[in-house]
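Journal club prep — side note

Before the paper discussion, L.F. wants everyone to see what a predicted structure for a comparable chain looks like in token form. Sequence:
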Amino acid sequence: VDAMETAGESDAEKRVAPNTTSWGVPYAYFAIGDSTGCSADHFKNMRLVFNLAFCGNVAGNRFIGDCPDEAEDFMVKHDPIRSCNAYIKSEPKELEEAYWKIKGVYVYEREMEDVKPSTSEDAQ
């Protein structure tokens, strides 16, 4: 599972079957499958949820850096999540137009290169 930024994506990346080798390094990578400690068997009959969690661990921790003016006005003990929550509670009108616009959800698999284990003969 990769998490990548898509803002400013190129025309090639907007295709349904893009060349994933041209993509940069993902923000996150979670190895799933045999010998990873995370069996793929856990991932079946699941739902995909798009959550507008404005002040959770990911979004809230970015509040001070991404919204410095608002963070200055609503700072709570230098805690970005509490500051974000204070802003959200005091400015509900700011969220009236908060929504996801989703063109589609696509699943891509990276082709991994086969790495041959070295042998003692290779070292000679």
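L.F.'s comment for the group: The beta strands are 2-3, 28-29. Keep this in mind when we get to the figures.
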